[in-house]
Amino acid sequence: MAIGCGQDEVVEMSPAAVLAFAEAEHARRLDAERNLLKAAYQWAVLHHPDRLPPGDKRGRERAKRAGGAGTPLITEYAAAAFGARIQTSPFGARKLIADAVDIVLRLPRIQGLIDTGEASSRHARHVAEATRELSESEAAWVDAEVAESCDGRLAWARFEALVEGKVAAAAPELARLKEEAAAREVFARMSRVNKHGMATYTVHGDVFTIAGIDAAVNAVADSEELKEAMPDATLNERRVAAIALLANPAAHVDPVVGPVKVKVKAYLHLYGDSPIARLEGHGPVTTDWVPHQVSRLAGARTSTNVRITPVIDLNNQAPVDAYEIPDRMREAVHLIHPGDVFPYAANTSRRMDLDHAIPYSEDGQTAVGNLGPLTRTHHRIKTHAGWEVRQPFPGIVVWRDPYGAHYLVDATGTRRVTGTPGGQCLTPAELHFTQTLVNYLAA
User: Fold this and answer.
1) How many domains does the chain have?
2) Is the pLDDT of residue 95 over 50?
3) Cys bridge to 79: 2, 18, 42, 93, which one at CB 3.0-4.6 A?
């Protein structure tokens, strides 16, 4: 594809050619971003204080470390000229330079993938920023854990969650100190940004307290008393009224709602002897944080039930002869597929549809190996827009789009498996996999 393709040329393209053009341009953009990282690193090398002429004092006295621990100094004003050339501020340029230096000197696995064009600049930079407070050895451990996901296979929100968890696991003591600091940052206050007669009130507290508030608000908003008192109100309007009622019963005199019994369910994932656990929907927490919160809830004056549920056996899920999916199987599917299985999807909630890859009406089983979570939009795309999907093994999902491209989705994310950007040739392994895949889907 020629560089600088004009609009008239794009207009004449077929749908397949437009997709190929977009893919090639995207690859060029990723290459440019990687090259910019390399330039930023070299700029830092050229502006170490020792590289200045002996009589040049510009920025020497206030030189700062370019990135995290183990990175060299860079003169104070070095970022200004670099930033101007790439249309950003000195602050933005300093961040880019810090990321570039950290990637080269603290994240060798990711740097290797940058050199081969396999890692994206955006993902690499996020890891560099997230590990900046870590020691060199801790940053190197995170680098080894997340490097393969820096190719964009995970949706951005899921990649952020992966990196956050690995950073906490690499430095649990730092994670504990941050938890203690965060616990002191509770507040409830009115926002200063109020417009058109509307205002915002923000409550910041631990996840269980906020979940309890949310559950109470939902219970009052869905009460028959409030629905009768506000027959034309939307759910959000009733939720605001519920908050006012709970905070100040005199605010609304019509509805009468008694004490609300709050039930909050939290999913905690523990990993062997790791000092870090994952609180589903909220991120990593230290294992010391968990018993403290549970004992606090158990000792509260309000009626609170704490229930521990054992992990289910994922290898002992027999198919059922029905379209409806039992709760135990639904839980197993969620554990096998922690997120939406559509290519590059980001949703990780438990409120998605569970789709039969082979429809039940076409003899598809209601079994973990034939079910996958999809948002309603992605479910409709699969049903009506010409996409096909199969699970050759539980947890391995293969998609074919309407134009013949194939994507493999597993717990590590999404990978394109039939072709590479820029028209590069497939490897023998990719050719074999593609042929096997096409034969499987055609069966």
Assistant:
1) 2
2) yes
3) 93
Give CA separation, 76 vs 43, 60, 81, 366, in Å. 13, 7, 12, 63
| pLDDT score for 369 | 86
- Could you give the 3-state DSSP secondary structure of residue 4? coil
Nearest alpha-carbon partner for 127 in 114, 142, 105: 142
Angstrom distance (rounded) from CA 120 to CA 114: 7
Tell whether 342 is covered by a domain.
Answer: yes
Which of 170, 198, 223 is the C-terminal boundary of a domain?
170
Confidence band for 279, pLDDT divided at 50, 70 and 90: confident
Question: Contact 11/21 with Cβ under 8 angstroms?
Answer: no
* Whole-number pLDDT of residue 36: 97
Q: Which of 119, 137, 170 is the last residue of a domain?
A: 170
Mean pLDDT of 137-147: 97
Pick from 171, 177, 96: nearest CA to 140: 171
Q: Does the structure show a pLDDT above 60 at 426?
A: no
Per-residue H/E/C for 336-366: HCCCCCCCCCCCCCCCCEEEECCCHHHCCCE
- Phi and psi torsions of 210, nearest 5°: -65, -40
Residue where the block lists tokens 């409830």 = 188
Question: Which residues have C-beta within 8 Å of that of residue 243, sequence separation ≥ 6?
Answer: 217
Q: What is the pTM of this model?
A: 0.77
**Cα separation values, 142 from 19, 137, 346, Å:** 35, 9, 22
Q: What is the mean pLDDT of residues 393-407?
A: 89
For residue 233, is it within any domain? no
Asked if residue 254 is part of any domain, the answer here is no
Q: Is the residue at 127 inside a domain?
A: yes
* Residues 6 or more apart whose Cβ sits within 8 Å of residue 71: 65, 98, 101, 102, 105, 106
Q: Are strands 406-410 and 283-286 parallel, antiparallel or unpaired?
A: unpaired
Q: What is the mean pLDDT of residues 63-75?
A: 92
- Residue numbers of the domain that contains 135: 22-170
54: buried, middle or exposed (CB in 10 Å: 19+, 13-18, 0-12)?
Answer: exposed
